[in-house]
Amino acid sequence: MTRYAASLLILLCFACGSSQAQVADAKPMDAALAAKLGADERGMRNYVLVILKSGPDRVADGPERAAMFKGHFANMERLAAEDKLAVAGPFTDKTDWRGMFILAVETVEEAQLLVATDPVIAQGEMVAEYHRLYSSAALMAVNGIHREIAPE
Asked: Any idea what the Cα angle at residue 117 is, between residues 121 and 109, rounded to 5°?
């Protein structure tokens, strides 16, 4: 065994021992909070990321457009209240990518049904692109925290 290989082996042994110590020192999971947020054993859960892009039918400025966006925001509030919308927001750069949703659903098909209820989709102002996402279940706490920090 070369000196390099022996040094590498010693380093790996220390690293493995350190990892085992970190696992032993890890704090216990809050099982009640994990269950409330829909977390698996890793503290994660499935979502669907929805990218909202400019659609083929821009609604002209005026009362119809204002009503459409009022409905868009009301739809997001409804989905958040139903614990289906974990996170949403607009993109601030000026591209055809307009915004995104992270939906707390298992399948793209479930996400498509929810997104179809949004007036910006129904009227063709935006189109949706869907991606399955595995991320922290803590995202489910964002809406509650947001209500605490946002003005009325």
From this structure: 90
